[in-house]
């Protein structure tokens, strides 16, 4: 019986499972939309929303420029950013149009962009859209994305 044992194991050992979710979370923060299996998306939602909540709890301190903060606010922001950086890698690389590689600071993106975007939202920062079975092994696939307007989609529409 699995009483009080929450979470899926995915037939992986603990270190492999944690590494998988750290990488999935980093990719979700970097791209703001990823395609994965339904079960992984449902577990990823738990970890991604905890990180955004950690950034949001700072309030305006999360996205205020460093020069305008008091020493106590700087310490709070540093502690929160180190807690987030202990879970996701600091930098991610995204391929831009034309094949150019762009390095993005994932922790800063989480604090500056996502915490500001979800400032007035009490939770539910992600959405899972089921997209049908995978061709090779018939695994149920899903898109997981952040709620709200994607910057890439908005830029393409203009």
Q: DSSP helix count? A: 5
Gyration radius, in Å: 17 Å
> What is the CATH C level class, in words?
Alpha Beta
Number of domains: 1
Low-confidence stretches: none
- CATH level 4 superfamily: Ribosomal protein L17
Molecular structure report:
With 158 residues, the chain is an alpha+beta fold. It has one domain (33-157): Ribosomal protein L17 (50s Ribosomal Protein L17, Chain: A, Alpha-Beta Complex), CATH 3.90.1030. The protein is 45% helix and 19% strand. The protein has five helices and five strands, in the order H-E-H-H-E-E-H-E-E-H. The chain has helices at residues 14-31, 38-56, 71-85, 106-117, 151-157; strands spanning 33-37, 91-95, 101-105, 126-133, 140-146. The strands form two sheets. It has a three-stranded antiparallel β-sheet with strand order 1-5-4. The chain has a two-stranded antiparallel sheet with strand order 2-3. The model has no long low-confidence stretch (mean pLDDT 91).
């Amino acid at each position: 019986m699995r009483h009080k044992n929450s979470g899926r194991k995915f037939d992986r050992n603990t270190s492999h499972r944690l590494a998988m979710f750290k990488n999935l979370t980093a990719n979700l923060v970097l791209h703001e939309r990823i395609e994965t299996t339904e079960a992984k998306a449902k577990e990823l939602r738990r970890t991604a929303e905890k990180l955004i909540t950690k950034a949001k709890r700072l309030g305006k301190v999360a996205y205020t420029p460093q020069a305008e903060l008091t020493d106590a606010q700087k310490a709070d922001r540093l502690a929160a950013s180190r807690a987030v950086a202990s879970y996701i890698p600091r930098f991610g690389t995204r391929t831009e149009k034309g094949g150019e590689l762009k390095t993005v600071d994932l922790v800063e993106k989480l604090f500056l962009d996502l915490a500001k975007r979800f400032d007035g939202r009490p939770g539910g920062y992600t959405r899972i859209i089921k997209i049908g079975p995978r061709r090779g092994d018939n695994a149920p696939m899903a898109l997981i994305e952040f709620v709200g307007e994607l910057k890439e989609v908005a830029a393409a529409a203009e």
